Amino acid sequence: MNKSLNKPVIGVLSGIGPKVTGPFVDSIINYSQKLYGAVYDHDYPPILISSQPVCFYADRECDQEVIVHDLLEGLKRLEDGGATFAVIACNTVHKYFDFLKEQLNIPLFSILDATLDELAPEDKQVVLLATEATVKSNLYQDKLTQKGVEVVWLPEWQKVVTDCIVGLRDPGEHQQIVSMWEDLQDAIVARGIETALIGCTDFSVVAGLGKVKLKLIDSMKALAKMCVRRYWEILERSKQNSFAVNY
């Protein structure tokens, strides 16, 4: 009998954007090794992936009803497929988080909560690197302000972030993206800022392409870490309950 059938299953709604899915799953694997010493294939958590690309343009809005429909379709696919809990590997669509959570019969965990949990006491000032839609939604700013963290954002920096996110979809632009990312870091450091919060999983991929000159609070890695911790918490509770019943 395959004992993995008794394990919790991590449900991942991804594909938003398409370049995110692979690096996000890699991060789950890496944190399984770092946090819990996974070595052999059967040490790793089962992961159910629903790659559900939704409408996204850097310079204009999409039909909100269509976006919500597509997100819910992808999440229901995870639920019906046996996921124990689900996460969405995209920050921008978390403006629909509360509604989506209410439609599911499994827990849906937030990338915002996972990211903010990574803040250290000394992180009193951060630059926010995210899509314009995420910035305009104040998804992070309100929560950071409540924690006493100053959020720095400049329109010229936003243009670079947007250009990098768009360029990520074109393999021919990757060298240019690396140059833009490193120049952006230089500009941020020149303003005396040491920490950047990456509130876009696409930009998490961008940040992995070049040299890192800042302390990064990376939403994609934070969510992957939370997935692994939740998985092991549920697994340990299941083992304890099984032991109590058998005993």
Molecular structure report:
With 247 residues, the chain is an alpha/beta fold. The longest helix has 28 residues, at 219-246. It is 50% helix and 13% strand. It is built from ten helices and eight strands. The protein is globular and about 55 Å long. Strands 2-1-3-4 form a four-stranded parallel β-sheet, with helices on both faces. Strands 6-5-7-8 form a four-stranded parallel β-sheet. Helix 7 (155-167) runs antiparallel to helix 8. 34% of the residues are buried. It folds into two domains: 3-111 and 221-246, Rossmann fold (3-Layer(aba) Sandwich), CATH 3.40.50.1860; 114-220, Rossmann fold, CATH 3.40.50. It has helices at 21-36, 64-81, 97-102, 111-116, 132-137, 141-146, 155-167, 174-190, 201-207, 219-246, and strands at 10-14, 47-51, 85-88, 108-109, 125-129, 150-152, 195-198, 215-218.
Name of the CATH first level of the largest domain:
Alpha Beta
Mean pLDDT: 93
Low-confidence runs = 1-5
Oligomer: single chain
Helicity range of the residues? 40-55%
Estimated radius of gyration: 19 Å
CATH architecture of the largest domain: 3-Layer(aba) Sandwich
Secondary-structure-derived class:
alpha/beta
- Return the domain count: 2
Instruction: Output the helix-strand order.
Output: EHEHEHEHEHHEHHEHEH
